[in-house]
Structure formats: C-alpha cells, structure tokens
Write a structure and sequence with these properties.
9 helices, alpha+beta, 4-stranded antiparallel β-sheet, Alpha-Beta Plaits, 295 residues, 5-stranded antiparallel β-sheet
C-alpha cells in the first residue's frame, strides 16, 4: 500500500535504509563465510542500532549528499567533541549517519543545530502507529462520512477521532476492506476483540503491515507500477516469465536465492516468493514490526 504524500514516502524510505540498508551492509561486509539468516541478523544488530541513526537534510536543493557529508565532517573536525560514527549512507531524503552510540548521536545533533546556520536539519526516525485491516465492510458503511465516529460509538471505544486514522479503503466486488491506523493502546483493545461493528454488520479484523511488494520482479520496497526490471520474475521458479506461464513444478524462491548469493547465506529456496514461511518475507515482516510502536 503506497502513501499519497511525498513526506510519508520519504519517511518509509528513511526507515528502510535505517534498519535494512545498514544491517545488510554489515552482513555482506562482515560475514565472508556462509551463515544462517538469524545469526547474520544478530551480528548486524550488534554492530548497528537503528536507535542511533541521524538523518541530515540541507535546505539548499543544489547541495548533494556528498557535499553534506563533507560539511559535517569539517564541522566535527573543527569541534572538540568526540563523535564516533560507524558509517554513512546516501539516501533520497538526505544523509543517513549511523552513530556509535546515543551519546555521539546527541552530540552530533546538537553540533549541527548550533553551527548549521539553519541550513541543515537533523532528525531521528520515529515509529509508526500499528495498523488494522477491517474485512468485508458493506459499501454503504465504508463510504459514510462519519466512519471513524461510527466505529468509536458502535464499539464503545474509549477513544477520540484523533486516535483512529483511515489509511485506505480497498474495494472488493461486493464490499470494502478498510485499513486504519490506531494508537498503541487502542490497538491492544481492538485486537483482543477480534472484530468490530460497523453499521449493522460485524467485521473481522487483523493486524495489517505496511509491506510493499512488487508483483513483477517479486522484490520488496516498490510496486509493479514503479518497477525498473526489464523482465518479469516468476515467484514460483525464479524464471524470467510470469507465474501464469510457468511450466515447471520445481520451487525456487527468487528472493531467498538472491539473499544467498549477495549475503552468502544458506537459506532454503524450495518455496515460492508468496509463501508466508519464506525467510525473506519473515525478515521483511520483522523489519516492519521493528518500526511499529506497540507501547
């Protein structure tokens, strides 16, 4: 599910680069021998903490990330502060800096704020509120103007309209699936119920994860409409064709095959890319959960 605002798209990219990009760079550079997926992730997490990451942006549109990095390095060298940095990464929305610890992060953020002359902004990525999918909501109920108010009143929820945000309404043949974003407290309350009353109808609910996947190349992080791959990749056998044209019974997940090749892992590949037990899918799912505020 894609966000309509560019700000939210940038925030998603920030998260993906913070948790996934840095962790994967660590896996590929520090693990020259084959290892399990879980052990590789444990090693990466011990070296890079997503909590100690800072994103720097420049108000000067003509200044690229390389120039930003040079300016920040000079700024640090001119100061008497001891700021330790594990590494940097150039992302679309700015320069991502992975600090050694929270102390270095705090020092760097204060330094940029005091000497940046308002040309730089430093931010620490936060977390998203949890999401829920409400299934099979009748059309007249899904399209009503006071949908959030109806959810609160009919289910006697201890909440205000600010606690529930309608993210998307997905139209089915006869009804709608609705995705809402709620506060952590409200999430726990609703998930325990297992259903919600909307209008004169009871709808099942389940946690919903913002996991974007391309159904052309099978990779995560973009949709089919924005895919740059020249050919379709079969989620069943990894061949260069669509799944409907697949003629083999052999299962070979393209995502786990790619991870084995790039990160020298030993993941099993005898499943499809759509399998919920897929190692790559489970890894991506865990990344989304790390970005979700359940407290």
């Amino acid at each position: 599910m894609e966000y309509s605002s560019q700000l939210m798209k940038d925030k998603i990219e920030d998260y993906q680069n913070v948790i996934e990009g840095l962790n994967r760079d660590t896996i590929s550079s520090k693990n020259s021998t084959s290892c399990s997926y879980s052990s590789a992730l444990k090693k990466s997490k011990s070296n890079h903490s997503s909590a100690d990451v800072l994103i720097l942006k420049s108000s000067d549109q003509n200044k690229n990330n390389a120039q930003i990095e040079k300016d920040i390095k000079n700024m640090c060298n001119e100061s008497d502060l001891k700021i330790n940095v594990n590494g940097t990464k150039h992302i679309k929305s700015g320069l991502l800096i992975n600090c050694e610890n929270k102390e270095s992060l705090s020092k760097l953020k204060d330094l940029v704020s005091s000497k940046g002359n308002s040309s730089y902004t430093a931010s620490v990525p936060g977390k998203f509120n949890p999401r829920l999918k409400i299934y099979n909501v009748l059309a007249e109920d899904a399209t009503q103007p006071g949908l959030v108010e109806d959810i609160i009143s009919r289910n006697d929820l201890n909440a205000s309209i600010e606690d529930i945000k309608v993210v998307a309404k997905i139209k089915n043949k006869k009804d709608y699936n609705i995705i809402i974003e709620v506060t952590p407290f409200l999430f726990k309350n609703i998930i325990e119920r297992g259903s919600l009353y909307i209008g004169w109808h009871k709808s099942n609910i389940a946690e919903c994860f913002n996991l974007i996947k391309c159904y052309k190349c099978c990779k995560y992080g973009h949709t089919k409409n924005k895919c740059t791959s020249q050919v379709a990749i079969c989620p069943k056998c990894s061949g260069s064709h669509e799944m409907k044209d697949c003629e083999t019974e052999r299962l070979c997940c393209p995502n786990c095959t790619f991870s084995n090749s790039r990160f020298k892992l030993q993941l099993t590949t005898d499943h499809t890319a759509n399998d919920l037990s897929c190692h790559t899918y489970q890894h991506k799912l865990n990344l989304v959960k790390q970005k979700t505020n359940y407290c």
